[in-house]
Design a protein that fits this description.
Elements (H helix, E strand, L loop, with lengths): L10 E4 L4 H13 L3 E5 L7 E2 L3 E4 L2 H8 L3 E4 L3 H13 L4 E4 L6 H14 L2 E3 L5 E4 L4 E4 L8 E8 L2 H13 L4 E6 L10 H10 L5 E7 L4 H12 L4 E6 L23 H11 L2 E2 L6 H8 L1
Parallel strand pairs: 1-2, 1-5, 2-4, 5-6, 6-7, 10-11, 10-12, 12-13, 13-14
Antiparallel strand pairs: 3-4, 8-9, 8-11
Helix pairs in contact: 3-4, 6-7, 7-8
Length: 290
C-alpha cells in the first residue's frame, strides 16, 4: 500500500512541453507512472513522445482522460494560476514542483483549495514516490528507491535522496517518500503525512526529515507524542549552519531562539523519536525498530 498516490494514479503534467516538464515527464513515464495527459496553452492537439495527448486547458484534459492527479512545472509567476486551474477542473491531488512562488499568491491559493477539498503537495518540493505501485509524481529519482515498509517525510529534497539511498543500499525499502517543500506556506505538512502513514497498514516505521527555521518540526513532535503509535525517526538539517547565514529554503528562517536545530532536536527527544545525527544513522535506527 502507499499514501496519496498508487497504481490508480492518472497523472496530468502542466507544462509538459517546457524544458523541466518534458525532462521529468519522460522519467515518470519510464518509471511506470501512468501519465495520461499534458497541458500547455496553445499547444493542444500535439502528442508528447508520440503517445501522451497535449491539451490547451486542464478542464479539457480531465474531460478526455479522467486524470486524477496534476503535477506542475511552470514558472513561479504562473504557478498559482496553474493550481487554481487544476482545482477548478476537479483534480483532487495537485503537486507543485515550482520554486519561488510568491508568498502572497500562496496565501490566496490555500483557502481556495480548502473550499474545493483539494490536497496540495508543495510548492518548492520534489514531489512523492511510491515504489511498490511504480507511481512517481515529481523529481525524486526512481533508481534510488525500492519497495518496502518505511515511510519518509521531508522538507529537504536532497536530504530525502541521501536518506532514501542509505535505506535502499542497506536493503530497506520505502512505502512512500513525500517531499513536503521548504516554503513558508505549503499544502500538505508533516502532520498530514504522519496521519496518513499511521493509517497505512504497510508502513511500519516513519522517517521525518526537518530543517532549521519555523516550528513545523516542534508541532510534528507533539503530534507524534500524542497520536502516533508507530516508531518515528527524526533528522534536522542545518545543525552546523553558522549563525546569521541565510539558508536556501524560504522556510529556513530562525527567529530568536525559535527554530534552531537544538530546539527541534529537544522536541524530538521529548516526544520519543529516534534521532539521526547524520543521514547515515538512519539504517541502524530503522533496523532497531522494525
Amino acid at each position: 500500500m502507499s499514501i496519496f498516490v498508487n497504481g490508480g494514479t492518472r497523472l496530468l503534467v502542466q507544462g509538459i512541453t517546457g524544458r523541466e516538464g518534458s525532462f521529468h515527464a519522460r522519467h515518470m513515464i519510464e518509471y511506470g507512472t501512468s501519465v495520461v495527459a499534458g497541458v500547455t496553452p496553445g499547444k493542444g492537439g500535439q502528442r508528447f513522445e508520440g503517445s501522451v495527448p497535449v491539451f490547451n486547458t486542464v478542464a479539457e484534459a480531465v474531460r478526455e482522460t479522467a486524470a486524477n492527479t496534476a503535477v506542475i512545472y511552470v514558472p513561479p509567476m504562473a504557478a498559482a494560476s496553474a493550481i487554481y486551474e487544476a482545482a477548478d477542473a476537479g483534480i483532487p491531488l495537485v503537486v507543485c514542483i515550482t520554486e519561488g512562488v510568491p508568498v502572497m499568491h500562496m496565501s490566496r491559493v490555500m483557502p481556495f483549495l480548502a473550499r474545493h477539498g483539494v490536497r496540495l503537495i508543495g510548492p518548492n518540493c520534489p514531489g512523492l514516490i511510491s515504489p511498490a505501485a511504480r507511481a512517481k509524481v515529481g523529481i525524486i529519482p526512481g533508481n534510488i528507491c525500492a519497495p518496502g515498509r518505511v515511510g519518509v517525510i521531508s522538507r529537504s529534497g536532497t536530504l530525502t535522496y541521501e536518506v532514501v539511498n542509505h535505506l535502499t543500499r542497506a536493503g530497506i525499502g520505502q512505502s512512500t517518500c513525500v517531499g513536503v517543500g521548504g516554503d513558508p506556506i505549503i499544502g500538505t505538512d508533516f502532520i498530514a503525512c504522519l496521519q496518513a502513514f499511521e493509517a497505512d497498514p504497510e508502513t511500519d516505521v516513519i522517517v521525518l526529515i526537518g530543517e532549521i527555521g519555523g516550528t513545523d518540526e516542534q508541532h510534528a513532535a507533539r503530534y507524534v507524542k500524542e497520536r502516533i503509535s508507530k516508531p518515528v525517526i527524526g533528522f534536522i538539517a542545518g545543525q552546523t549552519a553558522p549563525k546569521g547565514r541565510r539558508m536556501g529554503h524560504a522556510g529556513a528562517i530562525i527567529s530568536g531562539s525559535s527554530g534552531t536545530a537544538e530546539e527541534k532536536l529537544g522536541a524530538f527527544a521529548d516526544a520519543g523519536l529516534g534521532i539521526m545525527r547524520r543521514p547515515a544513522d538512519v539504517v541502524e535506527l530503522v533496523r532497531a525498530r522494525m
